Amino acid sequence: MDEWHYKRGEAEFGPMSATQIRALKERGTLKPETPVRRGGTSVWLPLAAADLHAAVPEAPPVPVPVAEAKPDSPAFAEVYAPPKASAREPLKVPRTLLATAILLSLILLHIGVLRLAEVVLIGLHQQDLETTMPFTRMLWSLTTLIYEIAGHSLDWMFIPLFLALMAWQGCAFAALRRLYGDAMLTHGPASGLWWLAPLANLVMPFFCLRELRHLSRRQRQRQQVGIPFGPVLWVFEINLVISVLLDWILNLNERAMDGFTDSLVFDSTTMTLSAITSLAGAVFSFTMLIIVMGNLRQQMRLHEHWQD
Question: Which among 208, 204, 246, 231 is positioned nearest to 115, based on CA atoms?
Fold first, then answer.
C-alpha cells in the first residue's frame, strides 16, 4: 500500500494513503510547503514537490511458460486474455448511519409535531370557541385529538431522543473516519457522549455538528446554492439554549407560585413561558431534523463520488 506521512510543526502524522493526502491538500489543511514523506523512506519533501500519483513498485508477475499452457487451460486464458477494464464500485454510506438517521428523524418529527400542538393549545386556551371561526374550532379539535393520543409520550421521549442522537452522531463520524482517517477529525465517534454532559451539551454538539457539515461536503459543492446549513446550525443552537433555560425557569416559577393567591398572574406567567418553551422545542426539533437529513444526503454524495 502507498503510505504517506506529513509534518505539522514538530508533530508527525500518518500513515495515510495518497488519496487522503490529496483530500487534505484540496481542503486547505495541508499547504504546498508542508513536509511529506513516503512510507519506508526518511526523505522529507515539500508537498508541492511530492509525486502523490506515483505507484509503489510491485513485484513483476511470474511468467507462465507458453509450452506448458494449453489453449483450454486457465493459465492460457490468463496469459492471452485481453486486459479487463477496472470498474470502481461507488462507495455507499454504512447501513448503521442510514438506520440511525431515519430513526432519529422520526423521533424529531414526533417531538416537533407535539410541541407545535402544545403551542396551538396554549394559544387557543383562553379564547371563546363558541364565537370563533369554524376553522379555529376545527384546529382546536384536531390539535386536541393529536395531543390526547400521543402527548403523554413527551414525558419519556427524551430518553430515546438522546440515545438516537448519540448513535447517529457516532455513526456519522465513523463514516467520515473511514474516508479521511483519524488525522483530519477533531471529534470522533465518541463525541455523541457530549449530549449527556451537563452544560457542555449546550455548546459542544454545535461544534460537532459544524465539523460534520464541513467534512461531509464535497469541495465542488461549496459554490452550489442549496440549504444554508450555517444559519440552520445557529437557529438550532439558539433554540436549544432557549428551550433548556426556559424549561428550567418554568420549573422555578411553578415552585415560586406554589400557594400564590393571584391565580390570574400565575396562569398568565406560566402559560407564556410554556408557549415560548414549546415553540423553542419545536424549532429545535425541526432544525435538527433538517441537519440530520441534510448530512445524510451530503454523505451519500461524498461516498458516491469519493476519489472522483
Answer: 246
Domain 1-51: which CATH class?
alpha beta
Whole-angstrom distance, CA of residue 217 vs CA of residue 221? 6
pLDDT digits (tens, 9 = 90+) for 230-244: 788 888 889 888 888
Per-residue DSSP letter, 33: T
Q: How many residues does the chain have?
A: 308
Listed by start position, the domains of the chain span: 1-51, 95-304
Cα dihedral 111, 115, 116, 119, rounded to 10, equals 180
Quote the CA–CA distance of 104 and 294 in Å, as a whole number: 13
- C-alpha distances (whole Å) from 214 to each of 17, 29, 222, 256, 306 are 21, 12, 10, 45, 15
Q: Smallest Cα–Cα separation from 168: which of 289, 303, 304?
A: 289
Q: For 141-182, what is each residue's pLDDT tens digit?
A: 777 777 777 777 877 888 999 999 999 999 999 998 888 877
Query: Please, which contacts does 29-36 make with residues 24 or more away whose CB atoms are closer than 8 Å?
Result: 29/184, 30/6, 34/6, 34/7, 34/8, 35/6, 35/7, 36/4, 36/5, 36/6, 36/7
- pTM for the predicted model, two decimal places: 0.65
Torsion of CA 222, 224, 225, 228, to 10 degrees: -20
Closest CA to 283 of 222, 224, 240, 220: 240
H-helix or E-strand spanning residue 46: strand 45-46
Alpha-carbon distance 213 to 29, whole Å?
Answer: 16
Residue 14 sits at φ, ψ, to 5 deg, of 140, 180
* H or E element at residue 177: helix 158-180
**Residue 142: partners with Cβ closer than 8 Å, 6 or more residues away:** none
Residue 218 near residue 301 (C-beta atoms within 8 A): yes
Give kind and range of the element (H or E) at residue 94.
none
